[in-house]
Design brief:
Layout: E1 25-28, H1 32-42, E2 47-50, H2 55-61, E3 68-70, E4 79-85, H3 96-103, H4 111-114, H5 117-129, E5 132-140, H6 145-155, E6 173-174, H7 180-183, H8 187-204, H9 209-225, H10 229-251, H11 258-277, H12 281-298, H13 304-308
Parallel strand pairs: 1-5, 1-6, 2-3, 2-4, 4-5
Helix pairs in contact: 3-6, 8-9, 9-10, 10-11, 10-12, 11-12
């Protein structure tokens, strides 16, 4: 706004806030029926904000959902979660291309003189996005010149940066509009949930095998929903290692012979190598400790596992 309309309001200094929450989520070409089902059931209580003149139309689109507010009418109010609905596609036809040019950095020097209405629309958008406390979403139910560019502008990571600077992270995450379950959380929220589940599984440890496995499976699902392949890969490997460790512990009470012990050792070595490659050091330490009894049976005179590996890995408190 300040780039094209520098005198529109007093520009304050940058404020990073007390903590960094999830980025906004974007639903592009979202079917109104799916959004209506989403807010009526899985995200009940979420407020829909739209242009004041479109409130009645939006209510009908969403199956008479009650929590639809005009942006001007909502000024001064705050809500836990907000969906800004059809803000761009509802703009006048003659302003679609000017909005596109502004978002793409193509606006000419006299842009503010040629399109003074956009200043008021930017202020209206600012009012909408500052109504939410926890979660902000943008939903466009139809294609438009400005809306399509807005979605790309919001969800694209900028790679063109000055030398030595990291790429700029996308402002928002693009959510899957065909999966109502996935639309309930942004990618950042799925990622945070996955980390929480993985940490809970690690804390559960050997106290409850089934609970720990269930938590790791949930973590994997969350990472996959977040499209974070690296974390999903690590969680899957941790689940493999944990399951293997549980089998090793159970086998201590039975003598399946030297051949089985050697197979266990070989499988453990393979898993250990993968854990170390993925920098899963705590899990690697746990696996090494659980394998010690097996390796001592095979190599009774050597403590190489404890001496050269296990004690070198971080333990509790690191």
């Amino acid at each position: 706004m300040f780039a094209q309309f520098p005198d529109s309001a007093k520009q304050l200094g940058k404020d990073n806030g007390l903590f960094q929450g999830p980025r906004p989520g974007v639903f592009h070409m979202a079917q109104p029926q799916i959004i209506g089902d989403l807010v009526a059931k899985r995200m009940n209580g979420t407020v829909i904000l739209t242009h004041d003149e479109n409130v009645n139309e939006c209510k009908k689109k969403l199956g008479d959902y009650e929590l639809v507010y005009g942006i001007r009418a909502a000024k001064g109010l705050e809500f836990k979660r907000v969906i800004v609905l059809d803000f761009l596609s509802s703009l006048p036809t003659e302003l679609q291309k000017p909005w596109r040019d502004m978002l793409l950095g193509r606006a000419v020097h006299d842009f503010s003189i040629k399109h003074p209405e956009i200043e008021g629309q930017l202020k209206l958008l600012y009012t909408a996005v500052t109504r939410c406390i926890e979660g902000l979403f943008f939903a466009e139910t139809s294609s438009s010149i400005s809306g399509d560019v807005f979605v790309r502008w919001m969800t694209t990571t900028s790679l063109q940066q000055p030398d030595g600077q990291q790429p700029t992270q996308a402002i928002a995450t693009l959510n899957d509009i065909t999966d109502v379950e996935n639309m309930t959380l942004t990618q950042d929220e799925w990622l945070a949930s996955g980390v929480s589940n993985a940490e809970a599984a690690e804390a559960e440890g050997g106290n409850d095998e089934s609970s720990a496995k269930s938590l790791l499976e949930k973590a994997i699902n969350c990472f996959e929903q977040a499209k974070h392949n690296d974390f999903a890969k690590k969680a899957k490997l941790q689940l493999v290692s944990f399951s293997f460790r549980c089998e090793v512990i159970r086998d201590r009470n039975t003598d399946k012979g030297a051949g089985h012990r050697q197979e266990t050792e070989q499988e453990g070595v393979q898993i250990m190598a993968k854990l170390l490659r993925e920098n899963l050091l705590l899990e690697a330490r746990g696996l090494g400790k659980d394998l010690q009894i097996t390796t001592k049976t095979i190599y009774s005179s050597s403590n190489f596992l404890q001496r050269l590996l296990v004690q070198m890995l971080p333990g509790e408190g690191y």
